[in-house]
Design a protein that fits this description.
The structure is a single chain. This protein is of the alpha/beta class. The protein folds into four domains: 235 residues, 2-Layer Sandwich (Dna Ligase, domain 1); 90 residues, 2-Layer Sandwich (D-amino Acid Aminotransferase, Chain A, domain 1), CATH 3.30.470; 133 residues, Phosphohistidine domain (Glucose Oxidase, domain 1, 3-Layer(bba) Sandwich); 285 residues, Phosphoenolpyruvate-binding domains (TIM Barrel), CATH 3.20.20.60. It contains 36 helices and 33 strands. The strands form seven sheets. It has an eight-stranded mixed sheet. The chain has an eight-stranded parallel barrel with strand order 26-27-28-29-30-31-32-33, surrounded by five helices. It is elongated. The relative contact order is 0.07. InterPro entries: ATP_grasp_subdomain_1, PEP-util_enz_mobile_dom, PEP_util_AS, PEP_util_C, Phosphohistidine_dom_sf, PPDK_AMP/ATP-bd, Pyruvate_phosphate_dikinase, Pyrv/PenolPyrv_kinase-like_dom. Pfam families: PEP-utilizers, PEP-utilizers_C, PPDK_N.
């Protein structure tokens, strides 16, 4: 154990009356919001919160802070005095819940224990206090079940099997049909399970129960499912969790009691209305677990009008106060409404855009805040294809549309299989009766989630929405048999594991087989071909349009495209590209032209080389004429040839076999032999670090000058045709300024020759890619010969880390992510500390030498939301990415420009 580094004089426990919603770092989201609701005068059961600082001390040292026990005792005494009850006393027991509550919502990932304080003695007092034996014994069995699994590590299935056996013996299907005597027997069975599996009796001392539960919540911060969820959601691992001790209120006291979850707007669509689930005679865990099907929240009006009206008023109060969609947990105890939690609710991508614009129209937030309420990742989700509703595919069921998207995959019935098949390249749909936190790894691996139980507030729905994963819940027509790995659909058809199914998270429909997809209306909008369709689609497109327009007005970063031909360039322009940041000319030399490049590389004489260059020049010129025409008036950065040499040479093994066969058959093979000798001469062990980029241009005379001539002649032709070509020439893989100076001198001479021959003045900027650490470290020198830098972050990441991307992603990246060495792949989001530091250093050094130096990035990081924010911060002028990611980059550039410090929009 490390030394207990307890902060001196720190307060570790706060009463609900002492906090507020701005103390999420200290009190966690749940504790801060319980305090806020208390301050608003809403009906919150009294309680107190143990801070995240206490958790951090415990996690670092293995021991709770020395002052914590006394602080908890003082707050417990105050709570007992206020309630007129004592924790677990036999005649009039106070019961409490012990619940986790991190800064960021992690639904179901950490531990909760309800009904702390019940024992063999106090259960009698609770029965007398409530006038209901059944309720008391039901609460006691729940405590033993939750405590046994959460605190003592007993396999939860053992309790579930015993519960099912009790219902079977009684010949009932739901636990509410078990009577007090049945539940009393079940308590005895549960205690025997605890004794056998945990090696100790269930604790009868209520304070011991509470202290052990607090430790269990602390420990759950580092549980496997919590760590997995944090990696998935990119939540820092050093925040810790708060612990909320709240006096119990009971929804399982009969038909005039119940529990529910409510949303101030539909988290799936964003539409205003009455959304949520309610379950009579139940505790909160029953709703979230989805073990009993709920009724829509609207039905509460006919069940308990007084509580319903009060709840509607509170929901309006909370939404106006938080100025956002609120997710609310509540309990009704014999007609008395209690608020147990509120938080800014997770929502689907479409709902995020709709709600943001709705709140602007209502005057609750401004456009700047609306821009912060949506993300590039959500926009990318809206651009995914959707199912073609005209397709003739068998619909077999319909559930609740919990999280939108179109998912197709093979049905699997447990998380282990989902992960295993997914890693083998299979697309899978995870099918369960209901999910629980232990299913998280399978949910991440699956294309979508389908459950036969639960609603929009079930575990599956909440987690799927948070991850942007397609989900259909509560498809009651489906009979899911996880043990036999099969699902029976209406009509008796059986779906076996491995059978292909499709689920539509936007409509809740479930199909047999694969449903074809059609483009998203959002993509059609960006491409300028959005047609009048469903009102819902038009409304979403309008919301996206409004937010994108504001992002474009606010952003400083320009957004260009990586495009190598006119077709891609035109599509990029429709998506809002403000030029081309990377035209990879090597892509133009594949296919039919590969033989010409091969002849150029292998040429033995100057005549052979010139012949190859002469054949290539008009082809290259036409490429650029088409490209400059497509992007007329916008900059086009053309990267000169940058292939690893092996891409343009015959495979050495294949060529060796051909020569050997020809020799064995005594057939003529002079050309093949000459070619093999040349390939052996040029063969490289690591082509990515070999003869490529500027090195190739220097070693093969005339290669780069041919390309520069083609660019210049194409630009001159466009200009003489009244066009506005804005070509930029980029020299790849420069490591020293001398390389750039030599190529630049040759390029300037060629440009001057073309100007003289065509009578056209050409303003062609010449710059370089910064993709080697040495280039970044000597950027001040390189800027003397460069008018612009474009950071090639793909190669820069490879060379900084010493990774061969094609190899390492398949070999050890999974292990690095699982072990937490990476929070995310450095090829996906820029490594700020390493690669990012070099980008920042090079940008600053380059501009010290040349203040007007244009700076951009053309690696795929240019379309990554988090990376775009970094590029904004270091002062780049533009990012460039693939055409499909341009809207995402535009949105994130706007968000970066308006991002207010300290905002938590998760």
């Amino acid at each position: 154990m490390s030394e207990n580094k307890e902060p001196h004089g720190v307060k570790f426990v706060y009463d609900f009356t002492e906090g507020n919603k701005d103390l999420k770092d200290l009190l966690g989201g749940k504790g801060a919001n319980l305090a806020e609701m208390t301050n608003l005068g809403l009906p919150v059961p009294p309680g107190f919160t143990i801070t995240t600082e206490a958790c951090k001390v415990y996690l670092e040292s293995g021991e709770e802070p020395a002052a914590l026990r006394d602080e908890v005792s003082a707050h417990l005494d105050a709570l007992e005095s206020r309630m007129g009850k004592k924790l677990g006393q036999p005649d009039n027991p106070l019961l409490v819940s012990v619940r986790s509550g991190a800064k960021f919502s992690m639904p179901g990932m950490m531990d909760t224990v309800l009904n702390i304080g019940l024992s063999d003695k106090s259960v009698q007092g609770l029965a007398k206090q409530a006038g209901d034996d059944r309720f008391a014994w039901d609460s006691y069995r729940r405590l033993i079940q939750m405590f046994g699994k959460t605190v003592l590590g007993v396999d939860g299935d053992l309790f579930e099997e015993a519960l099912e056996a009790a219902k079977g013996a009684k010949k009932v299907t739901v636990d509410t049909d078990l009577e007090a005597a049945d539940l009393k027997k079940l308590v005895t069975t549960f205690k025997k399970i605890v004794k056998k599996e945990a090696g100790r009796d269930f604790p009868q001392d209520p304070r011991e129960q509470m202290d052990l539960a607090i430790k269990a919540v602390f420990d759950s911060w580092n549980g496997d499912r919590a760590k997995l969820y944090r990696r998935q959601e990119r939540i820092p691992g050093d925040l810790g969790t708060a612990v909320n001790i709240c006096s119990m209120v009971f929804g399982n006291l009969g038909p005039d009691s119940g529990t529910g979850v409510a949303f101030t707007r539909d988290p799936a669509s964003g539409h205003q209305g009455v959304y949520g689930d309610y379950l009579q005679n139940a505790q909160g865990e029953d709703v979230v677990a989805g073990i009993r099907n709920t009724v829509p929240l609207a039905e509460l009006e006919s069940i308990d009008k007084k509580s319903y009206d009060q709840l509607m008023q509170i929901m309006e109060t909370l939404e106006n106060h938080y100025k956002d969609l609120c997710d609310i947990e509540f309990t009704i105890e014999r007609g008395q409404l209690w608020m147990l939690q509120t938080r800014v609710g997770k929502r689907t991508a479409g709902a995020a855009f709709r709600i943001a614009t709705q709140l602007v129209d209502q005057g609750l937030i401004d456009e700047t805040e609306a821009l912060q309420r949506v993300t590039g990742a959500q926009l990318a989700q809206l651009m995914f294809p959707r199912f073609d509703e005209q397709a003739k595919v068998a619909q077999v069921a319909r559930g609740i549309a919990a999280s939108p998207g179109a998912a197709v995959g093979k049905a699997v019935f447990d998380s282990y299989t989902a992960v295993k098949w997914s890693r083998s390249g299979e697309k899978v749909i995870l099918v369960r009766r209901e999910t629980n936190p232990d299913d998280l790894d399978g949910m991440i691996a699956a294309e979508g989630i389908l459950t036969s139980r639960g609603g929009k507030t079930s575990h599956a729905a909440v987690v799927a929405r948070g991850m942007g994963k397609t989900c259909v819940c509560g498809a009651e027509e489906l009979e899911v048999d996880t043990k036999r790995r099969r699902m029976t659909v209406p009509g008796g058809h059986v779906v076996e594991e491995g059978d292909l199914i499709s689920i539509d998270g936007s409509s809740g429909k479930v199909y047999l087989g694969e449903v074809p997809v059609v483009p998203s209306p959002v993509v059609e909008y960006f491409e300028g071909r959005m047609h009048a369709g469903a009102h819902d689609a038009d409304e979403l497109v309008e919301a996206v349009h409004r937010i994108m327009a504001f992002a474009d007005r606010k952003r400083r970063l320009r957004v260009r495209a990586n495009a190598d031909n006119a077709e891609d360039a035109l599509r990029a322009r429709r998506f809002g590209a403000q030029g081309i940041g990377l035209c990879r000319t090597e892509h133009m030399f594949l296919g039919d032209r590969r033989e010409l490049v091969e002849r150029l590389i292998l040429a033995d004489t100057e005549d052979e080389r010139q012949e190859s260059l002469k054949a290539l020049l008009p082809l290259q010129k036409q490429d650029f004429v088409e490209l400059f025409s497509a992007m007329d008036g916008l900059p086009v950065t053309v990267r000169l040839l940058d292939p690893p040499l092996h891409e343009f040479l015959p495979d050495i093994t294949e060529l060796s076999v051909r020569v050997a066969l020809a020799e064995s058959r005594q057939e003529p093979h002079e050309n093949e032999l000459r070619l093999l000798q040349a390939v052996h001469r040029l063969h490289e062990q690591n082509p990515m670090l070999g003869l490529r980029g500027v090195r190739l241009g220097l070693v093969i005379p005339g290669l780069f000058t041919m390309q520069v001539r083609a660019i210049a002649e194409a630009a001159a032709e466009r200009k003489n045709a009244k066009g506005d070509p804005r070509a930029e020439i980029m020299i790849p893989l420069v490591g020293t300024v001398q390389e750039l100076e030599i190529v630049r001198e040759e390029a300037d001479q060629v440009i001057a020759e073309v100007e003289a021959a065509t009578g056209t003045e050409l303003k062609l900027a010449i710059g370089t890619m910064i993709e080697l650490p040495r280039a970044a470290l000597t950027a001040g020198q390189i800027a003397e010969a460069a008018e612009f830098f474009s950071f090639g972050t793909n190669d820069l990441t490879q060379t900084v880390w010493g990774f061969s991307r094609d190899d390492v992603e398949a070999s050890f990246f999974t292990a690095y992510l699982e072990k937490g060495i990476f929070g995310v792949s450095p090829f996906e989001t820029i490594d700020r500390d390493g690669v990012g530091s070099l980008v920042k250093l090079a940008a600053e050094a380059g501009r010290r030498t040349r203040p007007d130096l244009k700076l951009g990035v053309c690696g795929e990081h240019g379309g990554d939301p988090e990376s775009v924010h970094f590029f904004h911060e270091v002062g780049l002028d533009y990012v460039s990415c693939s055409p499909f990611r341009i809207p995402v980059a535009r949105l994130e550039a706007g968000r970066a420009a308006t991002n207010s410090e300290g905002s938590d929009h998760r």
